[in-house]
Amino acid sequence: MRFVSMIIKDILRENQDFRFRDLSDLKHSPKLCIITCMDSRLIDLLERALGIGRGDAKVIKNAGNIVDDGVIRSAAVAIYALGVNEIIIVGHTDCGMARLDEDLIVSRMRELGVEEEVIENFSIDVLNPVGDEEENVIEGVKRLKSSPLIPESIGVHGLIIDINTGRLKPLYLDED
């Protein structure tokens, strides 16, 4: 039997003190989609660095801001169902996906009780490790721009954010 973790209990307790208010009139027609990493250090930093707030953008996050089929599908939904006309891939410096340690991951899998057969067939490649953060962003831009689901009229840009300062470095700007 699993016990409810202290993390979720803390979240629910904090939510009791949340200032509830009706936000249904919030402007919610973003034309921007951001594809970025799930790194917790980006929370609040990314929004401040980009000058955006709640309701200003659709945000797609995954480990290493990898543009895979799922991200392309989500971007297509953002374009066709939600009216997005601009996509920015934002990678970051010091990304953990650039330094994955297969031995450490396998050790952790064993600690958490993953079956030995699964571990024997495991390859770090299934996690899509990132070789170079900047090249990963450029590859993501190329993948989006070459996808038949992303029309040429959609601007696709690539940036990298310094995780320590918030400074943005343009890697690819889609200029008409």
TrEMBL record:
Report whether tRNA processing shows up as a keyword of the record: no
> Where, in this chain's numbering, is Zn(2+) bound?
37, 39, 92, 95
Q: Which Pfam families match?
A: Pro_CA
Could you give a GO molecular-function term held by this entry?
zinc ion binding
> Which keywords belong to this entry?
Calcium, Metal-binding, Zinc
* Cofactor or coenzyme needed: Zn(2+)
Residues given in the record as Ca(2+) binding sites: 152
Q: Could you tell me which InterPro entries the record lists for this protein?
A: Carbonic_anhydrase, Carbonic_anhydrase_sf
User: What does the cofactor section's free text say about binding?
Assistant: Binds 1 zinc ion per subunit.
Q: Which PANTHER family match?
A: CARBON DISULFIDE HYDROLASE, CARBONIC ANHYDRASE
Q: What is this protein called?
A: Carbonic anhydrase
